[in-house]
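Hey, resending since the last one bounced:
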Amino acid sequence: MAHLALFTLFSIFCALVAVVAAGSDYYKILGVDRHASDATIKKAYKKQSKKYHPDKNTTPEAKDKFVEVSRAYEVLSDSEKRAIYDRHGEEGLKQHEAGRNAPDPFNMFSNFFGGQQEQSRKGPTMLTEFEVSLADMYSGNHVGFRIKKRILCDHCRGSGAASDGDIHTCGGCNGQGVKLVKQQVFPGMYAQTQVTCNECGGRGKVIKKVCPHCHGHKVVDHTAEYTLDVTPGMPEGHEVVFEGEADESPDYDAGDVVLRVRSGKTSGGFRRKESALYWTETIGVDEALLGFEHNITHLDGRILTLKKDGTTQPGHVQVVEGEGMPIFEGTGHGDLFVTYNVVLPTTLGKELKQKLSGAFGRRAGAGPEKDETEYKEEEGKKEEKGQEEAKKEETEKEEENSKEEKDEL
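The C-alpha cells again:
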C-alpha cells in the first residue's frame, strides 16, 4: 500500500510538471474569467477539486484534472504569481519560480479544506428576514430576491491600487508588516519590541496611486440577484443558507447569506400552525338549522366543498383530513380545521316572524314559554294574592259596619 501511495504521488508530481511546461490557461481550467475576484476563484477551486480528487473520483483522467485544478488555484490565488502570469504568461511564471520546489497539490487541498496550517478568516453572516406567500409554502415555488452587499472591485481585484505597478513594498518594514522598536528598560539595558508597522498598517505594502473605481476602498456596492427554492411544507422561520454570498473583502472569506423564511400576514383567510391549516366559515341561521354546502378556494387553487347536513352549532369545528399543509421533506398532508361562525339577522320582518312562530309553536312577540312547574307556581301566587285581596275587602266592610253602629248609638 505504501509503494502504491508513493507511486500515485509520483505520477501526480510528473503530471504537475507537464502542466507547468504546457502553459495552460488557468482561468479556463477553473471556469472563471480573467477579472474574477479571489472569492470567485476560491469557490471555483473548491468545486473542481472536490469533483476530481482521486479519493472520490477513480476515473483515469481525474488525476490529471486534479493536478491542473490545483496548479491553477496555486497561481491565481497568489496575487504576485497571478500578476506575473497575467503579464508574462506561463513562461514568465516559470522563470519566477526557478529554483523553487513544485507545490504538492495534496498539501494545498489539505490546507484549503481544513489542514493544519492557519485557515483564512471568514466574514460575518448576513441574516435576512424573507417573506413569501402561504400559497408558495403550500405548493412550492422559485422566488427571486435581491441583496445589497459589497464585492471586491473588479478593476483592482481588491488591491485598492490603480494598477499592480502602484503597489510597492513598504520601506518602513521591508514588507514584513512589523517593526522592531528598541526601548530602554534600565540605564544601559535595552529591549526590542515588535510592533505593527505604522506606515503600511501591517500589510507590508503601500499604494502609491489608489484605484479610480473604488477610490482605494477595495470593495464596491453591488446588488446581487438570487433565487430561493421554496419547498412544499417549508416551516415558518426556516433558514436557507447561501454559502459565501455575503460581503466580500480582501481580508477574509465572504460569509454566508442566511434567509429566514416566513409566510405573509395575508394568506387568503387561511391560518397555519405547523402542518395544520385553519379556516373560519360564516353561515346564516337558516344554514345553521337546515344544513348547507359551501365552496372555498384552497391555497393551490382547487375548489374545496364544505358540506353539512342538519344543525350546526356556533363555534363548531369540522376537521377535513388531508387538506392541511404538506409534510416538510416527508409524505402526506396535515388536516384542515374549519370553524363555523353563525350570523344572526339584525332585524326580522313580520312575515318571517310569523313563519318562525309557526315553526316553533309560539305566538309572535310573546315572551318565552314556561314549563309546567313555573306555570303552577305562578297560578298559586295569583290565587294566594286573590285570597288576600278578598280578606282585606271583608275586613274593611266589617270595620265600616262597626262604625255605623256606633254612630246610631
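The chain has a mean pLDDT of 77.

Sorry for the duplicate.
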